[in-house]
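user: can you give me the structure for this one chain? tokens are fine.
assistant: on it. calling the predictor now.
[tool input]
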Amino acid sequence: MLVLHGIRDSRASMLGWASLLGGAGFRAVLVDLRGHGRSTGATLSYGVFDARDLTRVLDDLEARGLRVGHVGALGVSYGAATAIEWAGADPRVERVVAIAPFASLAEVVPGYAPVSLPELFVRRSIALAGTMGGYDPALASPRDAITHTRAPVLLFHGVQDDRIPYWHSREIAAAAPDHAEVVLVDGANHDTVGEDPDLRRRAVSWLRALTPDAP
């Protein structure tokens, strides 16, 4: 189970999740996503490069005989979006828990601006970022990526999330209603939703139910 952190964070922030998953019988692998923690890289591609990086991580684990059992991903925010994008690109990913992901790069950027920005300015800025970073911003779209995987995806989102509103998760799930489910957590915002004890128990239970012989 690859455990993925949020933007401007590092794998250390996911130690609690790793411990919980480990205690439930999963092998938890924590990584610093590109441009975070101890990982190199100057471009944040909102999952585009990260998904390719994670495929190489899994390739390496397999080459060293360290892959055991099923492959899944659990991520928070930026890491949640990356997990879905990775599943859409790598058929070895069998299940995903995504906590407060964004539906697309184009839709999440305006919410991080301190003031309202003209739509044309936002579109041009995103296009410029893609050109400078060497990636296509349109590919940074969990809503599109989920249609390219058969892996079941369980999404959690705080109802009071004003940074990435819960409609992002609803849009992702609506794109793949046959293998996606949304759970809205009342009273939780972007920073607190992952701390909800009921959410944590449900996530682990859902992962174990999918594969009773879980890793």
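assistant: here you go. The domain at 2-210 is CATH 3.40.50.1820 (Rossmann fold). Helices lie at 15-23, 48-63, 78-89, 105-112, 119-133, 142-145, 167-174, 197-210.
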